Amino acid sequence: MSRRLETDTPLSRIRVARGLSREAVAHLAQQAGYSLSYDGLTKYEMEEREPRVGLALWLAELYEAEPRELWRLKEIQP
Questions:
Q1: Residue 2 pLDDT greater than 50, yes or no
Q2: Which residues contact 26 (CB under 8 A, 6 or more apart)?
Q3: Of 4 and 46, which is predicted with more confidence?
Q4: How far, CA to CA in Å, does 13 sit from each of 32, 57, 78?
Q5: 42: Cβ–Cβ under 8 A, 6 or more apart, which residues?
Q6: HEC-encoded secondary structure of the chain
Q7: Cα–Cα distance for residue pair 78/75, rounded to 1 Å
Q8: pLDDT tens digits, 27-67
Q9: How far is CA 20 from CA 37, 38, 75, 76, 78, in A?
């Protein structure tokens, strides 16, 4: 059974542009020692959750992108 959930966020657009499926990214992350599932990646892509710094940096490296390209930065309120 193929799961498909489309999102239009920087993180998902770059993953798709790199030709990677969510399943492939989750598998590669697990091989690299990160606890990332298909559902977890989906939540990051839907901006329901934010990854820890180490995983965020790893994803940026995998996608050959700067971290700021993957997530919408929130403004700091004084």
A1: no
A2: 36, 37, 38, 40, 41
A3: 46
A4: 22, 17, 32
A5: 5, 7, 22
A6: CCCCCCCCCHHHHHHHHCCCCHHHHHHHHHHCCCCCCHHHHHHHHCCCCCCCHHHHHHHHHHCCCCHHHHCCCCCCCC
A7: 9
A8: 999 999 999 999 999 999 999 999 999 999 999 999 999 98
A9: 14, 12, 30, 32, 39
Retrieve residue 25's tokens.
Answer: 């990214």
Sign of the Cα torsion 73, 12, 38, 47 reads positive
List the structure tokens of 42: 């989906």
Q: Tokens 């020692």 correspond to what residue? A: 33
User: Which tokens go with 43?
Assistant: 């939540």
